[in-house]
Amino acid sequence: MIYVIGIGPGCRDLMTQEAISAMEDAEVIVGYKTYIKLVEDFVKDKEVVQNGMRKEVDRCQDAIDIAKTGKKVAVISSGDAGIYGMAGLILELITKQELDIPVKVVPGVTASIGAAAVLGAPIMHDFCHISLSDLMTPWEVIEKRLRLAAEADFVICLYNPRSKGRSEHLANAFKIMGEFKDGSTPVGIVKDVGREDQEKFICTFDTMDFERVDMTTMVIIGNKSTYIHDDLMITPRGYTV
Amino acid sequence: MIYVIGIGPGCRDLMTQEAISAMEDAEVIVGYKTYIKLVEDFVKDKEVVQNGMRKEVDRCQDAIDIAKTGKKVAVISSGDAGIYGMAGLILELITKQELDIPVKVVPGVTASIGAAAVLGAPIMHDFCHISLSDLMTPWEVIEKRLRLAAEADFVICLYNPRSKGRSEHLANAFKIMGEFKDGSTPVGIVKDVGREDQEKFICTFDTMDFERVDMTTMVIIGNKSTYIHDDLMITPRGYTV
Fold first, then answer.
1. Which residues form the Tetrapyrrole methylase domain (chains A, B) (predicted)?
2. Using CB atoms and an 8 Å cut-off, which of residues 142-171 of chain A contact chain B?
3. What is each CA distance from B40 to A225, B1, B43, B44, B128, in whole angstroms?
4. A182 vs chain B: nearest CA distance in angstroms?
5. pLDDT value at position B196?
């Protein structure tokens, strides 16, 4: 049995009841070491298998191998396990290896939802998620999505917006979206959502400061109706108020 | 003080700790009557203000008027309050009326995330949310978003896919997306996510049965890499497995 659990943005308060129950029920907890730290309370009496970044396939295969022995395993992802998390990889491996291991995906609050609550209500209308990581997705595909999403006037949430190895991606993304996003479009930035050192910053498309952004930051770009009021970013749904 | 709370798709297990604490802390609970039923356990000793569909502005104004008297009010939305929920409307009213009432948006698991966990892992790559309700959004805007989202090869999650009053919208949406979505593209349908009568159905774009869908259904259309395996719908992230 494998639980694939989204633990939310990183504080206990934003975990679901089901995520907590599943971690309690598991005998072995498998995860990226940074995320294991976030659930320390739940792993005290458990066997823990943790490893570093870019070891996702090994980590999921480890979880599967342990589950094969009959143990209940919890694989944890931050946010939601089904959004750029481990749910897909676990299911891909299990289906390709034609294994008969029950898998339960336990949903969680993803970073865009956590960040939106901190900013006010920026994703009240149609929105999309785009990851700027080109480790597994060709940059041309990312560019195309950015351009069409901006043309469609979606609110756009950027995941993995900027790492040390590709610090220029975010600025390039803004250049592409700039064909359709006006300079006055509100942009919300939240670093370390739900964690102790959470930081929030609201600016506009043409005053965007890329240096504020790293891999633990969520960037949300508004649509044509989004407005800023004091320290809030609000996208109207369309009610007459 | 107003809490705007996303209670998740509708079962206690998918509520966050923070949602439960906020409901417990509130003196008055305000919500659409169907959602009030979902949180019966938490409203027993509280004042409850509930009303029907399309009364969103009245409901939010009621909550604000009660909060003005100094009471702690919880406005509840199903899913996440910041996604087609009440967070935006509460903040719009408060900012337009220049009131000084503290608002805390409490994030929740939105329907697409809940449905995705039931289907397997369909939203593992870039995706978007589009509401097919044209009550407050011109249909031309919805059409444009559908076309561009399909062209961008997003996984597409449809909110408010089909009501009695506009039963043809979903078929029209499929016609539009069909310019770019292949007939073999997997489509996942989940009705009443997280509730007792939850139903799940997986088909392909060209075998879609629109009659299965109503307003409490989530429809998720895959991207070019999405595949079906037994009763699972999986969108690979791009790992080599």
1. 1-207
2. 144-145, 148-149, 151-154
3. 36, 22, 5, 6, 32
4. 18
5. 87
Q: How many CA atoms lie within 13 A of B161 on its CB side?
A: 26
- Quickly count: other Cβ atoms within 10 Å of residue A72's Cβ: 15
Residues of A in contact with B108 (CB under 8 A): 109, 113
pLDDT tens-place string over residues B209-238: 999 999 899 999 999 999 999 999 999 999
pLDDT tens profile A20-42? 999 999 999 999 988 898 898 88
In CATH terms, B2-109 corresponds, of 3.30.70.270, 3.20.20.100, 3.40.1010.10, 3.10.20.90, to: 3.40.1010.10
CATH code for the domain defined by A112-234: 3.30.950.10
**Confidence (pLDDT) at A171:** 96
In this complex, is the C-beta atom of B131 within 8 Å of any C-beta atom belonging to chain A? yes
Mean pLDDT of chain B: 95
Domains A2-109 and A112-234 share a fold: no
Q: Which residue of A has its CA nearest to B235?
A: A88
Identify all chain B residues contacting A127, using CB atoms and an 8 Å cutoff: 128-129
- Per-residue pLDDT for B43 more than 90? no
Domain boundaries, chain A: 2-109, 112-234
CA distance A77 to A226: 31
